[in-house]
Design a protein that fits this description.
The complex is a heterodimer of chains A (323) and B (339). With 323 residues, chain A is an alpha/beta fold. Chain A is built from ten helices and 17 strands. Chain A has a six-stranded mixed β-sheet with strand order 6-7-8-4-9-10, sandwiched between helices. In chain A, strands 14-13-15-16-17 form a five-stranded mixed β-sheet, covered by helices on one side. In chain A, strands 1, 2, 3 and 5 form a four-stranded antiparallel β-sheet that branches. The termini of chain A are far apart. Classes of the chains: A alpha/beta (323), B mainly alpha (339).
Chain lengths: 323, 339
């Protein structure tokens, strides 16, 4: 076996959940999962299915109901949770320095090495100019980056992140996922991310853990899970076609159009027409031809009698609606 | 990326502390001029020397000890509960201490032997107050395990406070006038009732409490991140919670025993100090808060002496009178308040 299949974490018949009045309420049962070295795994599942509970159980914040988890040592996992930090005057630097706490004695004296690791972690998430800013002055994305830097400063083989990209804009989401992927590829870290971002998970994860309603976790590489219909079964998508990656559109106008063109302008025109309720059908008498010349896009609308040119899509849509 | 050292803040704190310490010793119903202050300590001016050694210096030392103890206890509570409104008096610790001290002082009429043994012994009053504060705090902590919401916990603290206060009222109602007066004077708070024996008792207990507190700086820092993160950093939360309980109980209880239930210092000082030295690292914050507490009590005591007159005001009136407007001003100015 190559180095990439070195197992970093393994569960044996693990049951995770909570106890109430002495009775077990397992959210997951009989889990036999593993995480390999250098692997980015996205952990997906509907809201409330118990992703956070499982993460807490895997890192030992919570006792398993049954079974066990094997990790190299308790110090080998760093966490990014959804817990809010209430202290508003804490600086980014101080927050990141918490990553070094497992290595410090009671006196919390940071060594030169600790300071170097803290500064490197802050650099990795591009927060150097904000290092002495208070965390209350940061945006959501910057705060999430700072939490990630804290976990990086902890310098562990395994990273667990619970919804690190929630409430962030697309740019920040992509940046965080790219950084995590780089960590796996270049430093051989093992990363488990609980996330709802289906599109990002499909494009970045090496493997997916998919929580089902039967207290199981299905696993596999993203593409396999899409093609064999596992995702559809688990999520029961309402109005979303995973295989085309698009929201399904109802052609409510009962009007078909013929579309001709190429590249991005073709795709976005198709998007606009389907979104506004037209059906694209090559047999239609009404024809739209998209042409791209010298950075200018022209939409040519024609039927048996007339022919009009438009320079933007909204003009075309207005004309179609008046028809 | 280098960290700020807050040199100006430290200079301000040290200047205030030294200045107020000298002022506190030299100003009172008898003015001792600065020029004669140090000379009087050891030369044969019996009047000044007596005043200094038997009254002024013990009082100033008590201010130093009580101020740093109460302010540190407030800091511990605010950090543990991650709540800026927490403090030894808000959560009913002081009322708990009052209850047991009231038991010792007021129940004297039922058992004169009990009273004779306990009331004249500095250790036992300190013990009673520490025990009272500690018991209430343990109660609060065990409720805190079930009630995760900090605001709810504060309300529970206030209720405990109300309940113990009413028990004290019942005892007051049924006690003798002499005992009642002794107890009432105790509740008004004073820095001037300590002799050297009591100061040494206070100093030992406070030093122990401060030692435990300073020994807990790593876990205190970690509490600021919340329990989950703290445990992920390998902090033993159960043990650290216990140490913080013990330290807060010792600090609040001992001061309450010897100086009465002093209001406001524990709540206000950590916030005031964070205005001057805005850090969250307890390694830096805690010494600053200790100095801040001493400064505030030295100042309040100075005001309570009404310099130039022979009258003395109750200390508790002054701490609240000065503390309340300062905290209001601070909240308005910074528009927010946090631990």
């Amino acid at each position: 076996m190559s180095e990439s299949t070195l197992i970093m974490l393994q569960t044996r018949n693990l049951a995770a959940g909570y106890k109430l009045d002495g009775k077990d309420f397992p959210l997951f049962d009989n889990l036999n999962l593993n995480l390999n070295k250098g692997e980015l795994v996205c952990f997906m599942g509907s809201n409330g299915i118990g992703k956070t509970t499982l993460i807490r159980t895997l890192v030992g914040l919570q006792k398993p109901l049954r079974g066990s988890t094997e990790i190299p040592s308790k110090d080998s996992v760093a966490l990014v949770l959804t817990d809010k930090i209430t202290s508003s005057i804490m600086t980014v630097y101080d927050l990141v320095s918490y990553g070094r706490y497992p290595y410090l004695n009671w006196n919390v004296q940071l060594s030169a090495y600790d300071h170097r690791l803290i500064e490197e972690s802050i650099k990795r998430v591009h927060l150097e100019p904000l290092a002495q800013k208070r965390i209350s002055e940061l945006s959501d994305g910057q705060l999430q980056m700072a939490m990630l830097a804290k976990a990086l400063a902890q310098d562990t083989a395994i990273l667990f992140l619970d919804e690190p990209t929630a409430h962030l804009d697309l740019n920040n989401r992509v940046e965080i996922m790219n950084l995590l992927r780089t960590l796996c590829r270049t430093e051989g870290k093992t990363v488990l991310v609980a996330t709802h971002e289906l599109d990002l998970a499909l494009q970045t994860a090496d493997r997916i853990w998919l929580a089902t309603n039967e207290r199981k976790i299905l696993e596999g590489i993203p593409e396999d899970l899409v093609l064999d219909g596992t995702f559809d079964e688990v999520f029961r998508f309402k109005g979303f076609d995973l295989k085309s990656g698009k929201v399904s559109q109802e052609p409510y106008r009962k009007k078909a159009l013929q579309l001709e063109g190429q590249g991005h302008e073709y795709l976005w025109t198709k998007n606009a027409l389907e979104r506004t309720g037209y059906e694209i059908n090559a047999a239609s008498a009404i024809k739209i031809k998209v042409t791209h010349k010298d950075k200018a896009i022209t939409w040519n609308l024609s039927n048996e009698n007339t022919e009009i040119n438009f320079t933007n899509l909204s003009g075309l849509l207005d004309a179609l609606a008046k028809d | 990326m280098k960290q700020v050292s807050y040199g100006k803040g430290w200079i301000l704190l040290i200047t205030l502390l030294v200045g107020l310490l000298i002022a506190n010793i030299s100003i009172g119903s008898v003015q001792i001029p600065l020029s004669k202050l140090f000379l009087s300590l050891y030369t044969d001016q019996p009047l000044f020397s007596d005043i200094l050694w038997h009254f002024r210096i013990p009082k100033a030392l008590t201010c130093l000890l009580a101020g740093s103890a109460l302010a540190t206890a407030g800091l511990l509570m605010q950090t543990l509960f991650r709540n800026p409104m927490a403090g030894p008096d808000v959560l009913g610790l002081t009322s708990g201490a009052s209850l047991l001290v009231a038991l010792v002082i007021l129940l004297g009429q039922f058992s004169t032997i009990f009273k004779g043994v306990l009331f004249h012994n500095s250790w036992s009053v300190a013990l009673a107050a520490s025990l009272g504060g500690g018991l209430v705090f343990i109660l609060i902590i065990s409720i805190a395990k079930y009630v995760k919401d900090n605001a709810a916990l504060l309300i529970i603290g206030l209720m405990i406070s109300a309940a113990t206060s009413s028990l004290v009222s019942v005892m007051q109602y049924t006690s003798k006038a002499d005992d009642l007066q002794a107890f009432l004077i105790w509740t008004l708070g004073s820095m001037g009732n300590t002799n050297w024996t009591e100061i040494s008792v206070l100093a030992i207990v406070v030093a122990l409490g401060l030692g435990i507190s300073y020994g807990s700086i790593k876990s205190l820092n970690s509490w600021l991140l919340g329990e989950n993160y703290a445990r992920s950093l390998n902090i033993n939360m159960g043990r650290s919670r216990l140490w913080i309980v013990v330290a807060t109980g010792l600090l609040t209880g001992s001061v309450t025993a010897f100086c009465g239930p002093i209001a406001f210092v524990g709540l206000a000082v950590p916030h005031l100090v964070r205005l001057i030295i805005p850090v969250t690292n307890h390694k830096i914050l805690m010494p600053a808060v200790m100095m801040g507490g001493s400064i505030l009590l030295l100042f309040c005591d100075l005001v309570a002496q009404l310099p130039g007159s022979t009258q003395i005001l109750p200390l508790n009136a002054i701490t609240s009178l000065i503390g309340a407007p300062v905290v209001i001003w601070m909240v308005i100015k910074s528009k927010r308040i946090s631990v």
